[in-house]
Every structure is written in structure tokens, then in C-alpha cells.
Amino acid sequence: xxxxxxxxxxxxxxxxxxxxxxxxxxxxxxxxxxxxxxxxxxxxxxxxxxxxxxxxxxxxxxxxxxxxxxxxxxxxxxxxxxxxxxxxxxxxxxxxxxxxxxxxxxxxxxxxxxxxxxxxxxxxxxxxxxxxxxxxxxxxxxxxxxxxxxxxxxxxxxxxxxxxxxxxxxxx
Length: 172
Fold this sequence. Notes:
Blueprint lengths: L2 E5 L5 H16 L17 H10 L1 E7 L2 E11 L2 E9 L8 H11 L6 E7 L3 H9 L3 E5 L10 E7 L1 H14 L1
Parallel strand pairs: 4-5
Antiparallel strand pairs: 1-2, 2-3, 3-4, 5-7, 6-7
Helix pairs in contact: 1-2
């Protein structure tokens, strides 16, 4: 297997949207019932993926000619957010998600703190991020419009750890 990570283009939107929708179908089975009038998920909404391509750093992961995953990052100075990570269902549990996450973060070495939110019902996501060094830092209450809350995670890089140590040293 030879994985590569590259920015998506307009032509990739239908396939990355379909992959994202497929990746979250299993999680959707655990989703609480949506309140009346609530919007369903946007994982496979072409318009949302086009918006994310314009507003964020949206990468596709391929193995040869096959799309196996995608990663959406938002970078602001020395902070980065994992906005989305998707792995094709038939490629899960092979280390691809960890490779995508690690490779995407390595593209941004100046980022000191990475953060993300994942639905509170998506237990396998919690395990995945914790396995990849993220620490749970919070939990939002259920959002009435969607019927669930979010677990918040952070990961400090070596640069972030050095900055924390320097801050503590200067406070002594």
C-alpha cells in the first residue's frame, strides 16, 4: 500500500462527499433521533464539501488511483482544527486513518495545539482520537436543533509542549 495525501479539486467533490457519507453511515445508526424539524447530517452534501474545499485545507488520501480517505483541516496561526476525517468503510482498521491524521498534521509543523470535536454518540471516534494522542478536554451539552452534543479533544505538539514549559518556567 502506497498512500498519498493531496489537496482536493472541484472534480473530487462528488467522490469525497460519497466517501464521507459512507464513512459515517455506521455512526448514524447510533445517532439519537433528530428533534422535529432538525437537519440531518451534511456528510454527503456536495455543497458543504465545496464550501469546505474553499474555506479550509481539504485533502484526499489515495492508494494508487483509489480514494481511501479524506482530511479537512482549519489552520489559524499556531492552532489547528481537525474539521473532518473520513476513511472508506472497506479500508477501516488498517491504520489508514492514523496515517492520514499524522501525515496531515505533519504538513503544519508550526501548529502547537490541535483541536477537534466529534459527536458524543460516535464512540469509535473517541477511541480513535485517544489512541492517536488526543486528550478529552470537554463535552458540550446536547444542541437542541440536532439532539446531541460533542466531545472536545486537544493534542499539543512538541512545539506546544515547549511553549507550555517556557510559560511555566517564566512564571517561576
